[in-house]
Amino acid sequence: MTNEPDLAHRLTAVREGVSDALAAADRIGEPIVTVVVTKFHPAGLVRELHSLGVRDFGESRHQDAREKAVELADLDLTWHFVGQLQGKKARQVQRYARVLHSVDRVSLAETLGDADPRTDVFVQVNLTEDPTRGGAVPADLEAVAERVLANPALVLRGVMAVAPVESEPRRAFAHLRELSDRVRLLDPTADRISAGMTNDFRDAILEGATHLRIGSAITGKRPERR
Ligand SMILES: *Cc1c(COP(=O)(O)O)cnc(C)c1O
Hints:
- The chain has 226 residues and is an alpha/beta fold.
- The chain has a single domain, classed as Alanine racemase (TIM Barrel, Alpha-Beta Barrel), CATH 3.20.20.10.
- It is 39% helix and 18% strand.
- The chain contains nine helices and eight strands.
- The protein has helices spanning 4-24, 43-51, 62-71, 90-94, 106-111, 141-150, 169-186, 201-206, 216-219; strands spanning 33-37, 56-59, 78-81, 97-103, 119-124, 154-160, 192-194, 211-214.
- The chain has an eight-stranded parallel sheet.
- α6 (141-150) links the parallel β5 and β6 (154-160).
- It is globular, with a radius of gyration of 17 Å.
- It binds pyridoxal-5'-phosphate.
- The site of pyridoxal-5'-phosphate has 13 residues, from β8 and α9.
């Protein structure tokens, strides 16, 4: 618990940064979810954050995520899966994750099975020029979203993206907002936008993000991958 004061300070600083950006975006009072991404950090850190009031946590690797979810089963947490999803692991991820931010292909939307409550889904879009990166290419967005809508086990919430390193984040998030408009033509309730990390969450908020995925600004530097 030695780093708890620092942790509390960083969390407060991010909460203030989020409030300031909401004000700058003329969005005061709008609901926004800050998912704290704890990948590579131990379960103890999640416990400390829980004691500071955090309930939404993000993980990107199934093995680590499952271990933490089991170890912390006594806490009322909502797990968000934000990493690349393997088809054959997807149903296992659904056992602990209430929200999947990284559904990016038709086959995955078809593979996901029943969960109680139904699993919330964001369709991840690839905003880079590199088709090997995670996310559906924008041309495939409707096809993936329609498969999610057709699967009664899933609830389509909206779109997710990571801003490409090579471009200006504000422009990338403006593009994501246009893609969100396209999904809302298929289902007006699928109006959430998962965007914004440590270095770009202010830009994401200015472009309508409803779900931020923030890691190191709150947790501190990530330990090396084990
Ligand atoms: C690690 C990660 C984050 C958080 O990154 P930070 O820069 O530490 O805030 C957000 N989204 C995804 C998909 C990630 O893998």
